[in-house]
Amino acid sequence: MNRLFYFLIMIICAAGMVSCDFSEAGPPSSVEGYAPVYFPKTSNDTLKFTGPQPTERPGKIVLKGDLLYQVEQYKGIHIIDFRDGDNARKIGFYEIFGCTELTIKDHYMYTNSGTAFIVIDIADLFNPRITDYRPDYWVGLSFPRPPGNGYFECPDPQKGIVLSWEKKTLKNPKCKL
User: Fold this and answer.
1) Does residue 52 fall inside a structural domain?
2) DSSP state of 3
3) What's the rounded Cα separation, in Å, for the pair 73 and 135?
């Protein structure tokens, strides 16, 4: 009986081994997956004051005196004259690549430029200047995950900030969930 039992176990194991794939084939040369959609990189250590810009992706707001500051996601900060709330008007825009956060204390604006942390002296509203710049300060800010499992194109920070993902045919993908 013991011999029969061991013989059956060996047959089952052998059958299982036949169905295993021991090959070390790497990623496929072409496969359906996700590719990042970028907000193109400009320069993340510059600040530029410009005239009013259209609001497309509004973000956080801060009211300081008669001025309202509103984040334009990934592009910068709107400056709005709010003395008359019924007739508020844009008076300028700070171009700040990758901006998503904002707070103000006294005449200093604290914000981000992608993963960098910057402090801006806004005492002279039309001539702002960066007083502190810390690259790679917000390590927690990263790209959103692809919407599904499988292969995806690895994000390249040099191309900009990943806003979303699109399904497409990938060539030699290196990343996989």
Assistant:
1) yes
2) H
3) 19
How many structural domains comprise the chain? 1
| Structural contact between residues 131 and 121, judged by C-beta atoms closer than 8 angstroms | yes
User: How many angstroms separate the Cα of 37 from the Cα of each of 16, 34, 64, 91, 99?
Assistant: 43, 9, 35, 31, 17
Domain presence at residue 27: no
Residue 149 lies in a domain: no
Q: How far apart are CA 165 and CA 35, in angstroms?
A: 6
CATH number assigned to the domain comprising residue 78? 2.40.10
Read off the tokens for 29.
């040369």
pLDDT digits (tens, 9 = 90+) for 57-108: 999 999 999 999 999 998 999 999 999 989 999 999 999 988 899 999 999 9
Cα–Cα dist 75/77, whole Å: 7
Residue 177, Cα to own-chain centre: how many angstroms?
18
Which DSSP string corresponds to 6-19?
HHHHHHHHHHHHHT
| pTM for this predicted structure | 0.68
Quote the domain boundaries for residue 78: 44-134
Whether 115 is covered by a domain: the verdict is yes
